[in-house]
Task: inverse folding
């Protein structure tokens, strides 16, 4: 089985990883880098639990081969908080009671972060659209949408 | 009197009724939270895959695993021949692996452990099985008929609990009956009677975390199981029994659960990997279900066919009902038999009716195994009951809200089983839901091609469990005076650990933020809990926690009374300080938590580490007569509530859009109001999802849509623009601080509330859920509403 050595940046940390050709980015994160915050819900690109930011875009990491990520910048849920300070999307989802079982939460937060990176002041429709690929069975989504709105407000305040 | 001087800082809010933040939120938002698949076992971990039946019903003529065993990387291959024991919570009707017969597509036949999932999967292809195909049962009414092929010819030989009644030489695994009053003569007194039939399809729970379990057996026969489970203790018990080992030799560790909804209650796939592990002592083996296996080979919600006849007098007073429920229980009945029982004894819905005949039959079919799902049969029965109620109200020309208020159960009502209803806020829930949706006022549709309507539905549900399901808890203090609470209930998203902390804090006298909960739950260290099911933890586990905290409190006060030479009745614990109302002395818990206090005479010490213990088990549940279903008390209590919906139907597409949704439930006492509201919201949206989108499509026993693309659940864009939750609090006499459960109830009345609103909008009933655009549109074409 062919293996490849790839170089990439994960959560601002440079990594060198030996990966088999068929290994997905999701498997690499969980099994090679022990970043288990990114979840495997379907391995078919349908549930969004494995969402990471790859070169600035939210993607399902189960649908990306690890070898394709040579030279890439990847942000996972473990990379959202900095200096023990939660990202606004993380703080907001707690305050808006958007956490229940927590299994979809990492993917939801990554999609929320990717949205706010490209659109700091999204409309409700844009938020719902951004979370469309993240299935959640617990919350009923309203608190997740509220959390993104709240995060946008917090982010705007800290940037002033 | 104690005054504020004793506690100069602002006292913490009372832990009960305070929406404290979830104690597991921080770890869940940072990715630090550990779920079962995240736990690391190192490079020695083996992977299991399961060979499953490709046929819905067949005899196994032979199994040849010799080629699979020879595949490099394969460590073990096991079949049913290795494991003769039986599994089953109420009725022991299945082996771990099939031995002589397969009963559904997906039934496990053999298990492989290998160094990778890929090799294990390849090995499955090398297992040769010869079958003799048998006739298929794909419908519960057919299954209950004498013509149907038998799935379990040995049904009469299976071990069974005393309150489940299988019928020998049939496919009926439980037949629950209610015979109250005289239904046959009551029809003559009715001014209006309607008869209807309803079908509810199989659906699946779709937890975002698929089932996963890791097992390791030791040379001495002990077994450790790490599993994503709602039932660590039930797994210990049932798996030990099936393998013929001692319960105390089975250790189950349950990390955080990524969504349960019933799918991870009891034993689903965990015994498979434990069985394989017993053949490879010392080696951990992991089994993960694929999303496809989730749909076909974990649990699904049972289907239901109900036939209903309901009548009332000229004033609208319900006089009689005659209901027949045929539950499509699937191939085995881990829970199905008790769903039929619970759906039977609560089968009247939340109404007081003098004459009742109910037959509730769980029927074996060649469908996936029906497990418990949020609501435990109640969303299914209410779907029919609450549409019938609407139709009967219309028939007798009484407003649907008024009709419900007239007939619904109230404090002191006689229940279908003959018991007496405890105080309930159901009428208040109806009033508040109706008021919030502006009942009786019809707003114009948002566009000419749309029709707008409103609907309401009410519900009741009791925790469905054996009469003697118990809970226990311990409470200990740490050096800093803070509190560690041990529980055996599982955090499956509902927030139970947070509520556990609040209740321990309140009973002990410390701020909620001082309490930690000891998890993961581990049957080796955690106190016993029957299962995390039935919305029973806040009530049952809560009673155990309160008892444990009071025990710890008593130990502390006894110690301080002795050390201070005071009367214990003058002492209290407030905000983490022991205080004396008499001397106004105050002492922080941290000064006495572990090391005790000096004796009054200074010669030595008294006290020591504080550990409180508590347990709870209801002692007042009586049996019901097997022929009449009558008895003193069938269930511990009923949570009641109402939902109201406003929606629009698009005449061009058939699309149903929910505009507003209101939920009002009587939870007795909201320990954490925000947690209660989020349960109500999440359950409501799950209910909407089941009403509009969800159906496990089965054809000749084969699931046609086992993926998240073909089996659609609600997404972020399907949520109503306005969603209102209303908490009603009529205290429960035996609940902690008056609380009762709310987890499941939140989706029980949603399907009929939507069906009633669709009727209000377009004047027809959409038939079997899901009320998809296609189904609604075709119904409108059939009715001539659109061309």
Result:
């Amino acid at each position: 089985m062919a293996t490849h050595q790839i170089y990439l940046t994960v959560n601002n940390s440079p990594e060198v990883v030996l990966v088999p050709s068929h290994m997905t980015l999701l498997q690499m994160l969980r099994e090679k880098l022990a970043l288990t915050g990114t979840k495997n819900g379907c391995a078919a690109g349908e549930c969004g639990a494995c969402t990471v930011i790859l070169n600035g875009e939210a993607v399902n990491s189960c649908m990306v081969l690890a070898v394709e990520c040579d030279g890439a910048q990847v942000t996972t849920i473990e990379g959202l908080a900095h200096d023990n300070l939660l990202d606004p999307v993380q703080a907001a989802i707690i305050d808006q009671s958007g956490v229940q079982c927590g299994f979809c939460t990492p993917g939801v937060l990554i999609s929320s972060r990717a949205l706010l990176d490209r659109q700091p002041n999204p409309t409700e429709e844009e938020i719902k659209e951004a979370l469309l690929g993240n299935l959640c069975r617990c919350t009923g989504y309203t608190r997740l949408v509220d959390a993104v709105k709240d995060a946008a407000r917090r982010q705007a305040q800290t940037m002033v | 009197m104690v005054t504020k001087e004793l506690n100069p800082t602002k006292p913490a809010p009372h832990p009960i009724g305070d929406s404290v933040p979830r104690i597991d939120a921080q770890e869940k938002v940072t990715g630090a939270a550990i779920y079962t698949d995240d736990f690391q076992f190192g490079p020695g971990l083996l992977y299991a895959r399961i060979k499953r039946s490709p046929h819905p019903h067949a005899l196994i003529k032979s199994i040849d695993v010799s080629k699979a065993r020879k595949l490099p990387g394969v460590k073990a291959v096991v079949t049913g021949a290795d494991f003769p024991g039986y599994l089953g919570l109420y009725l022991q009707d299945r082996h771990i692996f099939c031995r002589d017969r397969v009963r559904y597509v997906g039934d496990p036949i053999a298990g492989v452990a290998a160094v990778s999932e890929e090799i294990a999967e390849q090995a499955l292809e090398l297992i040769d099985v010869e079958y003799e195909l048998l006739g298929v049962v794909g419908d519960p009414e057919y299954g209950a008929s004498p013509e149907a092929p038998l799935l379990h010819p040995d049904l009469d030989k299976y071990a069974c609990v005393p309150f489940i009644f299988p019928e020998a030489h049939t496919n009926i695994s439980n037949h629950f009956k209610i015979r109250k009053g005289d239904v046959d003569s009551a029809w003559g007194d009715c001014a209006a009677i309607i008869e209807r039939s309803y079908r509810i399809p199989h659906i699946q729970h779709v937890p975002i975390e698929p089932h996963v379990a890791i097992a390791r057996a030791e040379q001495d026969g002990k077994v450790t199981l790490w599993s994503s489970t709602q039932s660590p203790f039930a797994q210990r018990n049932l798996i030990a029994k099936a393998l013929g080992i001692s319960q105390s030799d089975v250790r189950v560790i349950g990390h955080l659960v990524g969504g349960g909804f019933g799918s991870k209650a009891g034993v689903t796939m965990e015994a498979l990997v434990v069985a394989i592990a017993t053949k490879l002592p010392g080696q951990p083996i992991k089994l993960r279900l694929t999303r496809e296996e989730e749909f076909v080979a974990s649990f699904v919600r049972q289907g239901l066919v109900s036939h209903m006849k309901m009548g009332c007098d000229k004033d609208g007073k319900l006089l009689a009902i005659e209901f027949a429920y045929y539950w499509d229980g699937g191939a085995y009945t881990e829970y199905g038999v008790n769903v039929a029982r619970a759906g039977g004894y609560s089968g009247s819905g939340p109404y007081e009716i003098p004459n009742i005949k109910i037959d509730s039959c769980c029927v074996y079919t060649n469908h996936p195994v029906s497990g418990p799902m949020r609501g435990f049969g109640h969303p299914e029965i209410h779907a029919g009951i609450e549409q019938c109620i609407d139709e009967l109200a219309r028939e007798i020309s009484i407003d649907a809200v008024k009709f419900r208020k007239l007939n619904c159960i109230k404090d002191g009502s006689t229940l279908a089983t003959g018991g007496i209803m405890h105080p309930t806020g159901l009428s208040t829930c109806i009033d508040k839901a109706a008021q919030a949706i502006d009942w009786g006022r019809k707003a114009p549709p948002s566009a000419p091609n749309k029709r707008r309507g409103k609907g309401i539905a009410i519900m009741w549900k009791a925790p469905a469990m054996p009469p003697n399901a118990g809970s226990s808890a311990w409470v200990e203090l740490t050096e800093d005076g803070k509190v560690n609470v041990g529980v055996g209930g599982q955090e499956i998203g509902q927030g139970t650990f947070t509520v556990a902390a609040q209740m321990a804090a309140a009973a002990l006298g410390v701020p909620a933020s001082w309490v930690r909960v000891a998890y993961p739950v581990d049957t080796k260290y955690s106190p016993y809990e029957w299962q995390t099911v039935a919305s029973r933890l806040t009530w049952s586990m809560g009673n155990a926690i309160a008892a444990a905290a009071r025990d710890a409190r008593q130990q502390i006060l006894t110690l301080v009374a002795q050390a201070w030479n005071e009367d214990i009745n003058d002492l209290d614990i407030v905000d983490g300080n022991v205080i004396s109302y008499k001397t106004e002395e105050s002492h922080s818990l941290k000064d006495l938590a572990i090391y005790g206090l000096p004796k009054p005479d200074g010669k030595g010490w008294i006290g020591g580490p504080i550990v409180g213990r508590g347990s709870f088990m209801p002692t007042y549940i009586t049996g019901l007569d097997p022929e009449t279903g009558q008895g003193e008390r069938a269930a511990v209590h009923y949570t009641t509530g109402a939902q109201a919906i406003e929606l629009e139907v698009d005449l061009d597409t058939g699309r149903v859009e929910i505009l507003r949704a209101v939920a009002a439930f009587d939870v007795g006492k909201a320990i954490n109001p925000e947690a209660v509201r989020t349960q109500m919201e999440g359950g409501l949206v799950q209910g909407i999802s089941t009403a509009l989108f969800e159906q496990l499509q089965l054809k000749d026993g084969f699931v046609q849509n086992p993926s998240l693309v073909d089996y659609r659940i609600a997404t972020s864009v399907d949520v109503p623009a306005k969603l209102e939750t209303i908490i009603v609090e009529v205290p429960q006499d035996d609940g902690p601080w008056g609380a009762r459960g709310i987890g499941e109830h939140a989706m029980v009345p949603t399907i009929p509330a939507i069906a009633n609103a669709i009727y209000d909008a377009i004047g027809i009933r959409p038939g079997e859920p899901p009320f998809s655009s296609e189904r609604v549109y075709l119904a409108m074409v059939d009715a001539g509403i659109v061309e």
